[in-house]
Automatic annotation (TrEMBL), chain A:
Gene3D superfamilies: P-loop containing nucleotide triphosphate hydrolases (3.40.50.300). InterPro entries: AAA+_ATPase (IPR003593), ABC_transporter-like_ATP-bd (IPR003439), ABC_transporter-like_CS (IPR017871), P-loop_NTPase (IPR027417), Siderophore_ABC-ATPase (IPR051535). It comes from Anaeromicropila herbilytica. This is Iron-dicitrate ABC transporter ATP-binding protein. Pfam families: ABC_tran (PF00005). Residues 7-243 form the ABC transporter domain. Keywords: ATP-binding, Cell membrane, Ion transport, Iron, Iron transport, Membrane, Nucleotide-binding, Transport.
UniProtKB/TrEMBL annotation, chain B:
The keyword Transport applies. It is found in: Cell membrane. GO terms for biological process: siderophore-iron import into cell. The chain crosses the membrane at residues 20-41, 75-93, 105-123, 129-147, 159-179, 199-223, 235-261, 291-312, 318-335. The keyword ATP-binding does not apply. This is ABC transporter permease.
Length: 267, 344
């Protein structure tokens, strides 16, 4: 495995129209690790991820990949290094699993060079990693939400990027599938050394499955580090305005937050 | 194990490619059969042999005139216009991920019609100027719809609703033009507006062919890009596609096809709208739809024209027949969408 490229954000300010959402964020994505961006709704998690993936052009600041500005890298070349799975993408009607996953091979194809052996192999490998080889010729419309999400991740895998960004890959899934998807992403990270950055809603699953956490609050990066360093009662109070107790996850040993509401709290 | 998996996947790809090839070949054959039938039938029926001899350039009394001057231009314009409508319609539908997003539903065709009717009735022009005006107005309407639906955040559903509104407005303009026109001109304009292959002339074929060939080819060559665009803006950019540039090229080419074809035969109802979905059903969705949709478009126009000419005592223009075929499908589609809880 060659060395994984390093993705950096340099003081980026980003937003839509005139509304600034990210207010000067600088960060270095830990290479070969799983990082999770946490924060309350509308704090700019998604915007940050989309800016990192060049879907949103920052108002100021720059995104660097191995110290090169990403908007200076040819788009197909960049697409072979940096991939993003958006939140709830739309499935083209009637498409089969293998065809959809095969579309992840677009950055490797040119006008003259069509579909080749390498593309087959990449699709096959992606389907195997996601455990959906037997669904290859099924129509994506017929699949359950969890299976569908695996197909989308397989498409991102067929793209064979060193860095994979995922925008809430577990949202709308039952808890069983949430854990399954996070396990598969961990496999991918360990087997291929793929750098993974994702936005997750569940803080406890974030703490368990991540090596590194970025905590956002009102468009600013207010804490970063390993889950043990970052997750604390103070931080949760600040980020989510929620009082909680932090205990040790009995299964993984990672920090685990237990929210305190107004009711059902023992003396 | 690994080898087996590869063959399952490969088998699937191969199976789908074979299906595409077989269906597309059958569509080509059907198109050829219909085209030939258009040449055989008429006031006088000529045997195939005579038709072939005329096409080879032999001078046969009666037949040369009937086939060379009347039937051949009628057939060729139907064929080319059908291909143009089919390709343009399916491109719009795929790009906007909605079967309702066909140029004849969202007002682009009406835009061209307004220009053509204005040129014919008010300015009393004909020929290539009408075509140019139709293309320009078609483009303006397409841009207008896009800009109107861009305010706030862009969504395909919004674009379609705005398009339907624009379409209604343009229809009103056409009605106004018809009311103002001299009585003598109205029947001609009406026949044109319902989409008709009557009175086609050989002189308009070369340019039409060139337009269909060039812009059809551009869209065909962008087939792989269109498939990526179909995944949505975000994935398209992530996969390294220059989404804006591709979209502009596809829209421009489609509008050229639709507007030019409209300027020649008038807006043949629902062909652009029907061709893509029918082709999709036949070849299996998710594979490249452009060429089959073009062929289905041609089959619809030629088939409908044959029905309109020979199935009834009265002769109907082609657009009436396609209109009758298309409206039930539009209703079914709307009902289905409603059940699914609206479009995305």
């Amino acid at each position: 495995m060659t060395t994984t490229p390093i993705l950096k954000a340099n003081n980026i300010v980003a937003g839509y129209d005139n509304k600034i959402i990210n207010n000067g964020i600088s960060l270095v994505v830990p290479s070969g690790k799983i990082s999770v961006i946490i924060g309350a709704n509308a704090c700019g998690k998604s915007t940050l991820l989309k800016t990192l993936a060049r879907l949103i052009k920052p108002i100021s600041g720059e995104i660097l990949l191995d110290d090169k500005k990403i908007n200076k890298i040819p788009s197909k070349q960049l697409a072979r290094t940096l991939g993003l799975l958006p939140q709830s993408p739309v499935v083209p009607e009637g498409i089969t699993v293998a065809d959809l996953v095969g579309r992840g091979r677009f950055p490797y194809q040119t006008f003259l060079k069509g579909w080749g052996k390498k593309d087959y192999e990449a699709v096959q490998e992606a389907l195997e990693i996601m455990g959906i080889t037997d669904l290859a010729n099924r129509s994506v419309d017929e699949l359950s939400g969890g299976q569908r999400q695996r197909v989308w991740i397989a498409m991102a895998l067929a793209q064979q990027t060193d860095i994979l960004l995922l925008d809430e890959p577990t949202t709308f899934l039952d808890i069983t599938y949430q854990v399954e998807i996070l396990d598969l992403l961990t496999d991918l990270n360990r087997k291929r050394g793929t750098t993974i950055v994702m936005v997750l809603h569940d803080i406890n699953l974030s703490a368990r499955y991540s090596d590194y956490i970025f905590a956002l609050h009102k468009g600013n990066l207010i804490a970063e580090g390993s889950p043990d360093e970052v997750i604390s009662e103070e931080l949760i109070q600040k980020v989510f305005s929620l009082e909680c107790a932090v205990i040790k996850d009995p299964v993984s040993g990672s920090p685990f937050i237990v929210p305190k509401g107004r009711h059902h709290v023992m003396g | 194990m690994t080898k087996n998996n590869l063959t399952t996947i490969q088998k699937g790809y191969l199976h789908r490619r074979n299906r595409w090839m077989i269906v597309t070949s059958l569509l080509v054959i059907l198109t050829l059969i219909l085209s030939t039938t258009m040449l055989l039938l008429g006031n006088t029926r000529y045997p195939l042999e005579v038709v072939l001899r005329v096409l080879m350039g032999e001078e046969i009394r009666g037949a040369s005139f009937a086939i060379g001057t009347i039937r051949l231009p009628r057939m060729l314009s139907g064929l080319l216009v059908g291909i143009a409508f089919g390709i343009a319609g399916s491109t719009f539908q795929t790009m906007l991920r909605n079967p309702l997003a066909s140029p004849d539903i969202i007002g682009v065709t009406s835009g061209s019609s307004v220009a053509a009717v204005f040129c014919i009735l008010v300015l009393e022009l004909s020929g290539s100027i009408v075509s140019i005006a139709a293309v320009i107005t078609g483009l303006i309407v397409a841009i207008l719809i896009y800009l109107l639906s861009k305010g706030g955040s862009f969504s395909g559903g919004k674009l379609i609703l705005i398009g339907i509104g624009v379409q209604a407005m343009l229809s009103a303009v056409i009605s106004y033009l018809l009311l103002r026109a001299s009585q003598y001109d109205v029947p001609g304009a009406l026949r044109w507006l319902s989409g008709s292959l009557n009175g086609m002339q050989m002189s308009s074929i070369p340019v039409l062919f060139l337009i269909v060939f060039i812009f059809g080819l551009v869209i065909l060559l962008l087939g792989r890009h269109l498939k990526i665009l179909e995944l949505g803006e975000q994935l398209a950019i992530t996969l390294g596609l220059n989404a804006n540039q591709t979209r502009i090229l596809l829209v421009l080419s489609s509008v050229f096809l639709i507007a030019f074809a409209t300027s020649v035969t008038g807006p043949v109802a629902f062909v652009a709208f029907l061709a893509g979905p029918i082709a999709g059903r036949l070849i299996g969705n998710g594979t490249s739809n452009t060429l089959p949709a073009g062929l289905v478009g041609a089959i619809l126009v030629l088939g409908a024209d044959l029905i309109g000419q020979y199935a009834f005592d009265t002769r109907f223009p082609v657009g009436i027949i396609t209109g009758i075929l298309g409206s039930p499908y539009l209703l079914i589609l709307l009902i289905q969408m409603n059940r699914r809880g609206g479009s995305s």
